From TrEMBL:
Name of the protein: Signal peptidase I
Catalytic class of the enzyme: hydrolase
Superkingdom per UniProt: Bacteria
Membrane topology, from the record: Single-pass type II membrane protein
Family recorded in the similarity comment: Belongs to the peptidase S26 family.
Sorted UniProt keywords: Hydrolase, Membrane, Protease, Transmembrane, Transmembrane helix
Chain's gene name: lepB
MF term (GO), any: signal peptidase activity
Organism classification: Bacteria, Bacillati, Actinomycetota, Actinomycetes, Kitasatosporales
Keyword Transmembrane: yes
Annotated catalysed reactions: Cleavage of hydrophobic, N-terminal signal or leader sequences from secreted and periplasmic proteins
Residues of the Peptidase S26 domain: 38-186
Pfam families: Peptidase_S26 (PF10502)
Length: 263
């Protein structure tokens, strides 16, 4: 019995299992805390206040915006920015044009054009607005170092079109950008904010997604390892005790079944 106890509880498989359990918890903690910690450095959470970006975003959605510099922003990005002439608070809109772009609204099919190229905008609700149905006809060249922004809810968004009479023709400085949206974290089915391919053929292309998916995967894997490592230890110890008990009962039965020896 002593040797069996030593094998199961003091060494052998039991000790190896305990070591692996501890390693799983340690690695899991590193992944979990590292994923959340690095995410807190890279991302800033926001709550969407209005329906101006519907259907891409709805009022009350919780989103993660990657902290980026304004010069990293590309056409098609959904950005968070602050501009005193727009009220000074954080606003969320989609970048339609950058410095030097000629933006016109709207073509015969109701679509805005960038440098005479009609935009393909599948993220809008329904078909593009027909001229005269609430869209505003305009042509504007975006000043250098600035951005032209529209809400995806074109009939219910106060955006660059509402500031066309301003000296900068409705544009916002790149330096006003504080983040670029990467994901909707609430509701849970929100997912990653896609980069629209309709802008990919324009100079500069579209931006690359941030690291929100690998960071979330690291945190999830870490949580699984922590839970798995934590429950493995008690399960392994219980299994070892049960095995030792069965072995002890077997030895006792063998002893009882042997005939008594005579001197």
């Amino acid at each position: 019995m002593g040797s069996e106890r030593s094998e199961h509880e003091d060494g052998g498989p039991g000790r190896l299992g305990g070591a692996l359990s501890g390693l799983a918890v340690a690695v899991g903690s590193l992944l979990f805390l590292g994923g959340f910690g690095w995410g807190a450095v890279i991302y800033q959470p926001y709550t969407i206040p209005t329906e101006s970006m519907h259907p891409t975003l709805s009022a009350g959605d919780r989103v993660l915006a990657q902290r980026v510099e304004g010069d990293q922003v590309r056409r098609g990005d959904v950005v968070v920015f602050r501009d005193p002439s727009w009220g000074g608070g954080p606003m969320v809109k989609r970048v339609i044009g950058v410095g030097g772009d000629r933006i016109a609204c709207c073509g015969g099919d109701g679509r805005p054009t960038v440098n005479d190229r009609p935009l393909d905008e599948p993220y809008l609700a329904g078909a593009p607005a027909e001229p005269g149905s609430g869209s505003r006809t305009f042509t504007v060249t975006v000043p250098d170092g600035r951005l032209f922004l529209l809400g995806d809810n074109r009939l219910g968004s106060l955006d660059s079109r509402s500031h066309l009479s301003d000296p900068q023709r409705g544009s916002v400085s790149r330096s006003a950008v504080t983040g670029r949206l990467d994901a909707v974290v609430w509701p849970l089915d929100g997912g990653v904010v896609e980069r629209p391919e309709g802008f990919a053929g324009l100079p500069g292309g579209i931006s690359s997604p941030g690291p929100v998916v690998p960071l979330a995967a690291a945190a999830a894997a870490g949580a699984i390892l922590i839970v798995g490592g934590a429950v493995y230890g008690p399960i392994a110890r219980g299994a070892a005790r049960r095995a030792a008990g069965r072995a002890a009962r077997g030895s006792a039965g063998e002893s009882a079944g042997r005939p008594a020896s005579h001197v």
